[in-house]
Amino acid sequence: MNTAPGYPPRVALARKPLGILGSAMTARRNVLELIPELALKQPMVSGRLGIRWHMVMDPGALRRVLKDAVEDYPKSTVTRLILEPAIGDSLFVAEGAHWRWQRLAAAPAFAARHVEALGPVMTAAARASADRVGGAAQPFDAFAEMVAATFEVISDVTFSGDAGFDRDAVHTAIEGYIARTARVSLLDILGAPPWVPRPGRMVAGGALRRTKALADRAIADRAGRGPRLPPDLLDLLRSGVDPETGRSMNPAELRDNLLTFIVAGHETTALTLAWALYLCAFDPAVQDRAAAEARAVGPVITAADLPRLPYVAQVVQETLRLYPPAAFLSRTAQKPDTLGGREVKPGDTVMLPIYALHRHRMLWTDPDRFDPDRFAPGVDRDRFAYLPFGAGPRICIGANFALQEAAIILATLLARFRFDTVPGRAPYPRMILTLRPEGGVWLRATPR
User: Fold this and answer.
1) Among 268, 269, 272, 412, which one carries the catalytic annotation?
2) How far is it, in rounded angstroms, from Cα 339 to Cα 62?
3) How many domains in the chain?
4) pLDDT reported for residue 308
5) In terms of CB atoms within 10 Å, which of 87, 162, 163, 186 comes out highest?
6) Distance of CA 63 to CAs 58, 177, 320, 335, Å?
7) Cα–Cα distance, 77 to 410 (Å, whole number)
């Protein structure tokens, strides 16, 4: 683990070339350890293994990849190979016209008024989480608790707690899939075509099929019974249409997109909250300031209270800078291009190491330090220097949902408890599909 006094845990980046086999082994252990330390100081780093690759940290080049020439840089083959078995050709994976119509159809479901209307579900989950923390043996694993809290939210807002939707079965299947199959293989590093089987991904199929069958039954049942009042995410997606064509999602498309939102909607927010609680315990002064703000709001924190919680929001934003859940993205160039003055050829892999971008020495002052005041009102930064949710037309559709949920749960917990770290049990940032705290986030919670 790479640590220094006064700094939270950080990844030990590569200090020498890894080679093909070393890269494959490193990627299976921790994708972020592929990033060369040089990437913290340079706008772009390029190389070749089985394929040509470029790591891009320059905000101008990132703007081109994510916004100005987004259709020339679709999701990489590796990303599709990992995710398609679980979520099909849904919004997260789809490209071109198929992505566009799904995005237009789904967008109303994530409008501000609908996200705010889901606030009571988040408040209820936050209070239930606080009750569990108060009754738990100490120390407790904050990551496991945040997974439970956010999965409660996403399953309620997706299926309104339908009895036919087996939360535990879906959660177990998702966790199993990530653990067994969401790893980079040697064949990926070598640039093997997608039709070459990756043995490590030919497992967990039974659990995925059962999960899809559960979602299919819930969708069919809702179609027979009609929408709920107020509508949940399933109802909103069922009623969504592409305004340009009038097309709506068929049952298979509904299922794949709902599973996408279930996976992304709880995993990423749970990670953010777990890391945020750890950082607050790591820095008592930050924790005291955020807790005082939350306690001034009152014992029950709702979506309407968020304007009164600006420092809590800053803590969430700084957590997303240091430990972005989607910490490493990749694209495949489709056309000849120039990025940062460097030639890019069709077929090149263009990597977006968000973890390195957020800690880049040319973009941030003392970037490894935890400092929520980086996000205080009036502080300016390049839009493409901070990308926890991506940017451009494919920015995460659920970003506002995640930020609202994280602020409500974090403020609720800080208002009720003081959190302290456990000596010798600092989490290590390890990325397979998302940036997880290896070993859990073990904290002590003391009632205030």
Assistant:
1) 268
2) 9
3) 1
4) 98
5) 87
6) 9, 32, 19, 17
7) 36
Q: Nearest CA to 291 among 413, 116, 201, 120?
A: 413
- Contact between 405 and 153 under an 8 Å Cβ cutoff? The reply is yes
Report the chain's mean pLDDT, rounded to a whole number: 87
Tokens of 30: 């921790």
The question of whether 419 is a catalytic residue gets the answer: no
In the chain, pLDDT over 70 holds for what percent of residues? 87
pLDDT at 203: 54
DSSP code per residue over 143-159: HHHHHHHHHHHHHHHHH
- pLDDT score at 92: 80
The residue-averaged pLDDT of 305-315 equals 98
What does the block give as tokens for 251? 């049952």
Instruction: Answer whether 183's CB lies under 8 Å from 27's CB.
Output: yes
Q: How far apart, in whole angstroms, are the C-alpha atoms of residue 194 and residue 77?
A: 7
Q: Which residue has the higher pLDDT, 190 or 222?
A: 222
Kindly list the distances between the CA atom of residue 428 and the CA atoms of 16, 267, 271, 381, in Å, as whole numbers in the listed order: 21, 17, 13, 28
> What separation in angstroms does the CA of 433 have from each of 155, 329, 331, 357, 360?
21, 10, 15, 18, 22
Instruction: Give the CATH number for residue 365.
Output: 1.10.630.10
Answer whether 365's CB lies under 8 Å from 348's CB: no
Q: Is the pLDDT of residue 9 over 90?
A: yes
For residues 264 and 389, the answer to whether their CB atoms sit within 8 Å is no
Number of CB atoms found within 10 A of residue 41's CB: 13
Nearest-angstrom CA–CA distance, 195 and 211: 25
Q: Read off the pTM.
A: 0.92
Among residues 110, 143, 396, 401, which one is catalytic? 396
Q: Which listed residue (165, 389, 417, 419) is catalytic?
A: 389
- Using the CB atoms, write b or e for 368-390: b if 16+ within 10 Å: bebbbebbeeeeeeeebbbbbbb
Burial annotation 147-173 (CB, 10 A radius, 16+ → b, else e): bbbbbbbbbbbbbbebeebbbeebbeb
Is 389 a residue of the active site?
Answer: yes
Domain range for 359 is 2-447
Q: Indicate if 280 belongs to the active site.
A: no
DSSP 39-96: GGT-SEEEEESSSEEEEE--HHHHHIIIIITGGGSPBPHHHHHHHHHHHTT-TTT--H
- pLDDT band, residue 163 (cuts 50/70/90): low
pLDDT at 4: 65
